[in-house]
Design brief:
35% of the residues lie in helices and 24% in strands. It is of the alpha/beta class and 177 residues long. The strands form 2 sheets. Strands 3-2-1-7-4-8-5 form a 7-stranded parallel sheet, with helices on both faces. The termini are far apart.
Length: 177
């Protein structure tokens, strides 16, 4: 078995021009007070790989340019559109006004298994603080909450890992709104 090179992978996708000009998925990822710059960078990389339309960075979430974000993102910070809001609720209001379904990835009394929900588009996925999760005032604004079941003793995954799971599930099963 031979590992493919980066050039071979791009060729399989139809060439660099096709990769650069192909449509983005109608998904926005909202980071609600993500503390770790390494997690922010990893989420940028995941979003670029999934052709996410935009990342919205909110609150204490670090914004580019920062070496730690850039290093972890492997340069994808330059390839993904992003925007900053001081207050996550303002970002959510704007997304709702733009017709987005607001989905929280959070463990709540009303969360449903992430594999059992329909993923409408346009879709905004909110990811929260590594320890405290999504703030209560933001949770009160969402249309639905999904969760990834935990089978071990730990009750949560790393936020960047969770982002990868939910984003790729959304793009594989997204349905028109």
């Amino acid at each position: 078995m031979k590992q493919r090179t980066q050039k071979e992978n791009i060729k399989l996708k139809g060439g660099l021009r096709k990769v650069k000009t192909s449509a983005k998925n109608d998904i926005v990822v909202v980071l609600d007070n993500i503390k770790s710059m390494y997690n922010v960078g990893a989420i940028f990389r995941t979003c670029e790989c999934a052709k996410v339309k935009k990342i919205i960075l909110c609150g204490i979430t670090a914004t580019p340019p920062r070496d730690k974000i850039y290093k972890t993102s492997m340069g994808t910070v330059d390839l993904v559109e992003w925007e900053y809001f001081h207050d996550t609720t303002q970002a959510i209001k704007k997304l709702k006004d733009d017709g987005y379904c607001i989905m929280a990835l959070e463990q709540t009394d009303n969360s449903v298994h992430y594999k059992t929900v329909g993923y409408p588009k346009p879709l905004a996925i909110i990811l929260g603080h590594e320890k405290n999760g999504i703030s209560r005032k933001v949770l009160n604004m969402v249309d639905l909450a999904v969760e990834i079941p935990m089978y071990g003793q730990a009750n949560s995954l790393n936020v960047a890992t969770s982002a990868g799971i939910i984003i790729f599930e959304a793009i594989s099963s997204i349905k028109p709104k």
